[in-house]
Specification:
By secondary structure, this protein is of the alpha+beta class. The chain folds into 2 domains: 152 residues, Sandwich (Jelly Rolls); 105 residues, Arc Repressor Mutant, subunit A (Orthogonal Bundle). It is 46% helix and 18% strand. The chain is built from 12 helices and 8 strands. It has a 5-stranded antiparallel sheet, covered by helices on one side. A 3-stranded antiparallel sheet has the order 4-3-6, with no helix packed on it.
């Protein structure tokens, strides 16, 4: 089974390119309560300022991926500038998506280290810097494709040291995680998961926690609640959603919701409907 497909099947990925060009000076604030951000720097240098006062300097062509909402602002040399494509990313933001929640707040990948992205970078910039018919749709889809390739490369090249991607990059853990993804309604045992990974129960439990950052059953619980959020947003009744994601009934799912989200499914749905996306 494709290790990334369950995430894309369950959590809709969408991108909206909102800036492309040569940035000179200071950008507006990239601040959103609902979107992550993907920035591709092709030429020039950037200084990034963030609310915590931390400043980062990027001096080579790079990908900057904020998987979750995180305010930031760019500063460039006013004469030399920097060539950028910037997109808003919605990928289960505001939901318990184990892939997104386990990623670092900012993922920086020099393009020289990921040659697999070269062709897509060229296509992305050709469309973004052009003015042909269907440009916005083309660059949005290319940004989505670019992100898929970035996550694929992160697994293949072990670019992330912990979390879901690190687990999927591990040949043994990947077998167990894919099983969890495929059958979330199943009542798994530690012995079954360890056997799928070809390990003893003790070694599997230790290796899983060390690599992914949580226990196998904490990961499964997060995955189930994330799936429940997707189904609830599709207006599925709670009593139908609960058994579909592995809970005996609505009370059990509600308890898991409180544990992971801090509110009931009803409260979370109300919050989601009241949240109005803000453009950059």
């Amino acid at each position: 089974m494709d290790p990334l497909s369950p995430f894309f099947d369950r959590f809709a990925l969408s991108a909206r390119v909102f800036y492309s060009g040569r940035l000179c000076g200071t950008s507006g604030p990239h601040d959103s309560q609902t979107f992550g951000h993907l920035h591709v720097l092709r030429r020039g240098a950037l200084k990034i300022t963030q609310p915590n006062g931390r400043t980062l300097k990027i001096s080579e062509p790079s990908v900057l991926f904020y998987p979750r909402p995180r305010p930031h602002r760019f500063h460039t040399d006013e004469k030399r500038g920097a060539e950028l494509v910037c997109a808003q990313i919605e990928f289960g933001t505001g939901m318990l998506n184990p892939l997104v929640t386990a990623l670092p707040e900012l993922m920086i990948v020099p393009l020289a280290e990921v040659k697999e992205l070269d062709a897509t970078v060229q296509l992305l910039f050709a469309e973004a810097f052009g003015n042909r018919a269907g440009r916005q749709t083309a660059v949005d889809r290319l940004a989505e494709y670019f992100l898929v390739l970035l996550l694929r490369t992160a697994i293949q090249s072990n670019l992330v040291e912990s979390g879901a991607l690190a687990g999927l990059a591990d040949p043994r853990l990947s077998k167990a995680i894919r099983w969890l993804h495929a059958q979330p309604e199943r009542a798994f045992t530690l012995e079954q998961l360890a056997r799928a990974a070809g390990m003893s129960r003790a070694r599997f439990a230790l290796h899983f926690r060390k690599t992914v950052g949580v226990t196998p059953f904490d990961y499964l619980s997060s995955w189930r609640v994330g799936l429940a959020q997707t189904l609830l947003r599709q207006r599925r009744p709670l009593k139908i959603v609960a058994p579909a994601v592995g809970y005996s009934g609505s009370p059990a799912l509600t308890r898991a919701f409180y544990q992971h989200v801090g509110m009931s499914p009803t409260e979370w749905l109300k919050q989601q409907r009241e949240t109005v996306p803000r453009a950059d």
